[in-house]
Design goal:
About 40% of the residues lie in helices and about 15% in strands. With about 475 residues, the chain is an alpha/beta fold.
Amino acid sequence: MSLFEQSLPEIHNKLHAKELSVSDLVNQAYQNIGERDEKVKAYLALDEEQARARARQLDDRLVSGEEKGLLFGLPVGIKDNIVTNGLRTTCGSQFLRNFDPVYDATVVEKLKAADTVTIGKLNMDEFAMGGSNENSSFYPVRNPWALDRVPGGSSGGSAAAVAAGEAYFTLGSDTGGSIRQPASYCGVVGLKPTYGLVSRFGLVAFASSLDQIGPLTKNVEDSAYVLQAIAGYDAKDSTSAKVDIPDYLSGLTGNVKGLRIAVPKEYIGEGVDPQVKETVLSALKVLEGLGATWEEVSLPHTEYAVATYYLLASSEASSNLARFDGVRYGVRADNPENLLDLYHQSRSQGFGPEVKRRIMLGTYALSSGYYDAYYLKAQKVRTLIKQDFDDVFAKYDVIIGPTAPTTAFKLGSQVDDPLTMYLNDILTIPVSLAGVPAVSIPCGFSDGLPVGMQIIGKAFDETTVLRVAHAFEQNTEFHKQRPQL
């Protein structure tokens, strides 16, 4: 069995038995990247010299019997909007093509404390703005299951790397579905934790009230391991939550007997591909067979979620991206006539069209005379959407539906139609607006392409979300299937 087919506990057992070394894991990762990434384009930068040196250090500790971290020896790929000390962080943008951070994000510090090895930075839509990964300033990522299709966005590089066997696990960021949607398209497990559970310090901000870092993995158990390592309060993040961190691993009992599942009719209705709907309904029967029950419910404000999201996220983006002015970060325009011309030229040359579109939309929504009509109203609708979830969770343990309305679409098929592109996130955006956790797991195939099932939980109840996902996974084989490259 390939190393990339094995779970984290299986790899750890072999490390402890001296059947493997950390260098073996790192060598295999770079070998796979060398053989496959010319087709997939998941990586923007590799850190091979430092990774091999780090592997040798960990191998020395393995020999000495020194105490080992939770993710000991595992090579990890990091989405390129999470800063890494001394390793270039571009956010998929020409604007930051020369930016080398001088510190690590808190999640990167935690991964290093858990004894991982960083192997490289992963491709993404520019500043995490996109649902297909076609908005990277460098090159689009391709879906390992069908190279003429998108991997989803904006964490498409993170999802594709796991699906292609180019990383044992990766980190992504989710603003409106940017972990879950690409996980669905690429047939891997993608977890968006509750807002505030994982520190955002060191994540280059797109929309600060929505951004959240989370793992992409081969299976649910590995996802629980990674979450255990990165969750927790961080004083450097003012939105970090002071909550007790449970033992996510002991929660993977496989028992869902008596579990109450809500299935929103809006998630299996108009606009959802019939084969995707049937695949998710078949998955629900598996959970029924394990003793769970489900009923159809309504999240009545779902239809307003996409418009609400794009008003709020674009408004926050227009504010957050004001810092990129050609002075403090990134590239600077040559020969400006004056300071204002420097700002204008640097931003015009550095940002791509999708980023410019969202900055203009957000600036308009926040402008004098329009704030109440757009931004304030969107905030009120967000409250109603969150109330929908609270009402359902008063009676049910989890909400389940498709992660995306379709499977992965063809590269270039929607680039000239931003509204259609935005609607690909229609089933993940409400969850982000409510700030609750959700995971996408493989639940079947449609015409040979993966279909993702989204399991949504109450705030800070990742334990139940992961328990349900793990129970389904233990009784199916979809997560074990891999694309042929």
